[in-house]
Amino acid sequence: MSFLQSRKVIWLFVIVAVIAVGLYLFTVWRGQKLADQEYQPQLTRTVVAQSELPPRFPTGIPLEKDAKILQNTYTTSDVGGFQSVRVFITQKSLVENLQLYKQYFANNGWTVESSVDQDNLKSMSVRKDDLLVQVVLNEVPERKTVEITVQQLAPAPPQ
Questions:
Q1: What is the DSSP letter of 72?
Q2: Which of 18, 20, 79, 92 lies at a 20 to 30 A Cα distance from 86?
């Protein structure tokens, strides 16, 4: 093999090596870029008639009679998520409502996960089986509202 031919072979190996390294780096970069993109679940929101409770909503939960309902919906996701929401205007004080919900949940075997008790905002999150319920009592100058959100939790992984 002549000096010129051996030089061509060396350059051919260098070019092939550069292309191989370039393809490898591109593949790693593309894989990282795809991994960095978060999946956004598809949500479907359904409005429920005001005379009905949203699905999976605890049937005994206290609801004020003849209250003006602002929202009565449920939302599902393509990955199995579920949430029901009912919001209504209350005529009771926030203190009265908080006591009512505390008593209901205590009497019905719910576990309190967290709570907030401020002048114009009171809330509590409670859990029972695979349901998480959050009650938010809010007072702004023009109205007092009660928002009840029910979420179905994913089952706990086996241990």
A1: E
A2: 79
Task: Summarize pLDDT for 114-154 with one digit per residue, the tens.
Answer: 999 988 888 999 999 888 999 999 888 888 999 888 988 76
**Of all helices (H) and strands (E), which one includes residue 152?**
strand 143-152
| Predicted TM-score (pTM) of this structure | 0.71
